[in-house]
Amino acid sequence: MNLKGKTALVTGSTSGIGLGIALTLAREGANVILNGFGDVDGPKAQVAALGVKVGYHGADMSKPADIAAMQTYADAEFGGIDILVNNAGIQHVAPVQEFPVEKWDAIIAINLTSAFHTTRLALPGMLAKGWGRIINIASAHGLVASAQKSAYVAAKHGLVGFTKSVALETATTGVTVNAICPGWVLTPLVQKQVDALAAKDGVDNDEAKRRLLAEKQPSLQFTTPEELGALTVFLCTDAAVNVRGQAWAMDGGWTAV
Ligand code: NAD
């Protein structure tokens, strides 16, 4: 389980799931490059406290030129990327006929196309080293749909398909490519939906959380970033070398029903 000497780039890792995964990888000894917006010093200090090398690049994942600059930074400062976690993502909820075109474009760019760019840039270095892990954070919405999330569902289904295709291209190499499909995780992204539900139904925060879970997640428990980190770490082990092109649901039974 020891990832000492490996470098992980986790996109969108200044908060939520990405930060949880970055911290779990760092606990296993991996050096970490953080990415994302908002508070950077806090997450950097949390990772550094685990005794690994930590970096940050503020690439906007909707911009291919930024992503290329982040790869250049990773090559120069860390000797490349061994573990690529494509996690950055946004969401917008609206009926399709009212869905703003710019929101559609942003969701497809950040949640799907960014993984194409990071992968095509990081993969040659992994193949040259003979070892690599690419882990795409999709969603239960990459396996099943919900209404009013057309762009998000399309992007996450696309990310699962992209995962499978690249896994087949790399099947005989030391690079594995998989997706993880979380159900509800109580991050800032989901708290916004809890707030909207509380306002719509006129209920408090706890009742809104209960209703959100009851609608989709049979376990009635949120998945945590740390649990998703543990699955990510497993996919990085040598024992997982034959796990290729899979979409791992960690969703409290959401997609089992
Ligand atoms: P979050 O809002 O807490 O964090 C998102 C991260 O992405 C932040 O660090 C943010 O700064 C970064 N980010 C946003 N736009 C960016 C951009 N253009 N460029 C670079 N970074 C950007 O969200 P989260 O809930 O932790 O979600 C992380 C991933 O997990 C997303 O892909 C999301 O779709 C997926 N996911 C979340 C849940 C959930 O229940 N929270 C469930 C399934 C899948």
Structure in words:
This protein has 257 residues and is α/β, with parallel strands linked by helices. It contains eight helices and seven strands. Strands 3-2-1-4-5-6-7 form a seven-stranded parallel β-sheet, sandwiched between helices. The model has no long low-confidence stretch (mean pLDDT 97). Residues 12-18, 35-38, 60-62, 87-90, 110-111, 137, 139, 182, 184-185, 187-190 line the site of nicotinamide-adenine-dinucleotide. Nicotinamide-adenine-dinucleotide binds at residues 12-18, 35-38, 60-62, 87-90, 110-111, 137, 139, 182, 184-185, 187-190. Belongs to the short-chain dehydrogenases/reductases (SDR) family. InterPro entries: 3-OHbutyrate_DH, NAD(P)-bd_dom_sf, Sc_DH/Rdtase_CS, SDR, SDR_fam. Pfam families: adh_short. It is an enzyme of class 1 (oxidoreductase).
Mean pLDDT: 97
Q: What's the alpha carbon Rg, rounded to whole Å?
A: 18 Å
Shape: globular
Uncertain segments are none
Number of separate helices: 8
Strand order of the largest sheet: 3-2-1-4-5-6-7
What distance lies between the first and last C-alpha atoms, to the nearest angstrom? 33 Å
How are helices and strands ordered from N to C?
A: EHEHEHEHEHEHHHE
GO molecular function: 3-hydroxybutyrate dehydrogenase activity
Protein name: 3-hydroxybutyrate dehydrogenase
EC number: 1.1.1.30
Organism: Pelomonas cellulosilytica
